[in-house]
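Hello,

Our lab assistant flagged a job as stuck in the queue for most of the afternoon. It eventually completed. Since we weren't sure the result was trustworthy after the delay, we are filing this so someone can double-check. Below is the sequence as submitted and the structure that was eventually returned. Let us know if re-running is recommended.
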Amino acid sequence: MAHVAAHELGAAAYAIRAVMTAAPADGKETARLAELDWQRGRLPEQIRGLVLDDQRLRNYICWRVFDGI
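-- returned structure --
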């Protein structure tokens, strides 16, 4: 859990970066999309829209890992 609302995307973004780093050079985009799908698939319906909106709005400060919404 983030200590301030502005930081809640950090853990998700770092996890996506981690799977991309661990993937072979030709599989980084596939790994990014798989992790993004995995994360989004676990969002509770009650907050899903809020999180997706936040990802769109702040994607630029999270290495653009949330592209492809």
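-- support follow-up --
The delay was a queue issue, not a problem with the job. The result is valid. The CA atoms of residues 19 and 69 lie 18 Å apart. The chain has three helices and no strands.
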